[in-house]
Automatic annotation (TrEMBL):
Signal peptide range in chain numbering: none
Protein name: Glucosamine-6-phosphate deaminase
Residues of the full protein shown: 18 to 261 of 655
Boundaries of every Glucosamine/galactosamine-6-phosphate isomerase domain copy: 8-228
């Protein structure tokens, strides 16, 4: 789907998520959302907050699992994804803190594998992800599944690609202070979500969007694996769709 303005596109995706939340409320069932960070979903979260404030959208039945977190990085760090989520969504809605899940940026090195397995287990125990929100990095990554990530990958410690670190370095002051690692859901984890929406805005994403949508499915562009998902939608603005 191509929508000229990213703001309108973000509102449309938020409206779809809100409809799912309300439908589950009606059925008295929880809904499990997979959430993403970065500049791409900011307007999407702003619209969810507006719907909460102005249109009585409750998050009481919402369970969330974020894709990833920098490692090592404390949750209170201004650039942590935990902090991002608090600032853009969680601090402004009635979600229960017990329903919020992100990989931990402070887990001890020796505990990483167990932590990642427990994250996968928590997703399963919650019933799986109903609706997964994604952005896309210029390396073609979804979550932090950098080039080389297997189709079968699960939540794990990943090494960030130099291009990803360069793109993130503005947030951390310089490249030296930009984390080298992250904990990220795997490609297999993401593909198990029942419905997936990948959002991308701007000309700088046009080449990688084209590779993901029209290129071969390859671990070199992990977003390309969405081609095999029956309910995956790319929501693009005009410029991000410019090379299709
Ligand atoms: C980071 C995040 C991704 C995000 C990507 C693009 O690498 N881990 O989830 O999609 O950045 O960022 P932006 O949305 O700011 O372009």
């Amino acid at each position: 789907t191509v929508i000229p303005s990213s703001i309108d596109a973000s509102r449309a995706v938020a409206a779809e998520v809100a409809a799912l939340i309300r439908q589950r409320q009606h059925e008295k069932r929880p809904v499990v959302l997979g959430l993403a960070t970065g500049s791409t979903p900011v307007a999407f979260y702003a619209e969810l907050v507006r719907l909460h404030r102005e249109e009585h959208l409750s998050f009481a039945n919402v369970v969330t699992f974020n894709l990833d977190e920098y490692y090592p990085l404390p949750p209170e760090h201004p650039q942590s994804y935990r902090r991002f989520m608090q600032v853009h969504l969680f601090d402004h809605v009635d979600i229960s803190p017990a329903n919020i899940h992100l990989p931990s940026g402070t887990v001890a090195a020796a505990e990483i594998d167990a932590h990642c397995r427990a994250y996968e287990e928590a997703i399963r125990a919650a019933g799986g992800i109903d609706f997964q929100i994604l952005g896309i990095g210029r390396t073609g990554h979804i979550g932090f599944n950098e080039p080389g990530s297997s189709r079968r990958s699960r939540t794990r410690l990943v090494t960030l690609d130099p291009l990803t670190r360069r793109d993130a370095s503005g947030d951390f002051g310089d490249e030296e202070h930009t984390p080298r690692y992250a904990l990220s859901m795997g490609v297999a984890t993401i593909l198990e979500a029942r419905q997936v929406v990948l959002m991308a805005w701007g000309q700088h994403k046009a080449a990688v969007v084209r590779a993901a949508v029209e290129g071969e499915m390859t671990p070199q562009v992990t977003a390309s694996f969405l081609q095999e998902h029956d309910h995956a939608l790319f929501v693009l603005d005009q410029t991000a769709a410019g090379q299709l």
